[in-house]
Amino acid sequence: MYQAIFKLHSYWAYLVLLILIIAVVNALIKVFGDKEYEAKDFRISLFTLIVSHIQLLIGIVLYFVSPKFDLWSQLGSEVMKNPLARLYLVEHPLVNIIAVALITIGYSKHKKKLTSKAKLKPIAIFYSIALVLLLSRIPWSIWLA
């Protein structure tokens, strides 16, 4: 079961990153180009929200079925002294939860705005910060191997 969820989490991450990059680039181009907010922009931001939440749910399941979770009982507070254990058990989950929360906040804020620039600005800001956070905590050595 662990391997299947791990593979799903890994491959779904490519989709999340792709859609998030598209959403960020789209919002930034439209904000700096003074372009109008369109239905396409709504769909892109909504799809980003959906795929990121699905990834979060997959990640939560993976966290608890992972053999790495047993390191909490083996190492206790020593997890923080082990860089690899800290990445998998603390940094990666926490930072990615924050990133998904930022995507959610950006999406929620944009819905309340009335003008095009005001709608695109929260998406550009919050989605960009979320992208940076996600990229910072991906275990690249394992993911690209």
From TrEMBL:
Highest rank taxon of the organism: Bacteria
Membrane spanning stretches: 12-32, 44-65, 85-108, 120-140
Key words of the record: Membrane, Transmembrane, Transmembrane helix
Protein name: 50S ribosomal protein L27
Organism of origin: Mariniflexile jejuense
Taxonomic placement: Bacteria, Pseudomonadati, Bacteroidota, Flavobacteriia, Flavobacteriales
